[in-house]
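User: My collaborator sent over this chain with a note saying "see what the structure looks like." That's all I know about it. Can you take a look?
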Amino acid sequence: MKFYISCFLLLLGLGFGMTVQAANPQVEFQTNYGSFVVELYPDKAPKTVANFLQYLDKNFYDGTIFHRVVSRFVIQGGGLTPELKEKSAMAPIPNESNNGLKNEPGTLALARTFEPDSGSAQFFINLADNKFLNYYKPDPHYIGYCVFGRVIRGMDAVERIGQLSTHKVGQLTDVPNEPVLIKKVALLEKPVAAENLANMPAKKVAKPSTSVKKGKKRG
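Assistant: Without extra context I'll predict from the sequence alone. Here is the result:
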């Protein structure tokens, strides 16, 4: 009997170990408009997720802002201070947009310039089904933007940010009238259950005059 119990506990322990190892990293964003949780997908975008977690380890995103808000399109941030000064980022990484993930509502993607492999620190969250941002072919015009995560809790906070009024500041367009401060971005030690976002109403895409940009550059 002791033998069978030992075997059972061993298998149970292995099962728990496998569950922990298989779990995707989850990150909480704390902003002055509420908090939300993003699940990352290292199996689909290993270099992009590793890059994002490096910035996390350095507390790079703490104190930055969502500097670009386009209703029914995206909210973008992660690289500018409340004074709209661009922070010094690490070297850019290869574009992993050809990973099967789509720029659907609530997904997290890496911002970049027109150069496909120029993404570094900045990111954006899709507010609509932005099919024109997806990978189509390995051409700079059609290579798309790499999705590497999804909002699984607190999408209402993201939507709230996405409805803010904006104005132009120098070369930056769509800057929120009231700063959207990213107070802290931290890796969750204990995973949380995802909210049921399946019933979230689909939103019509509002194509902006310019595509997703990194800082002041075209992208």
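A starting point for your reply to your collaborator: DSSP finds three helices and ten strands in the chain.
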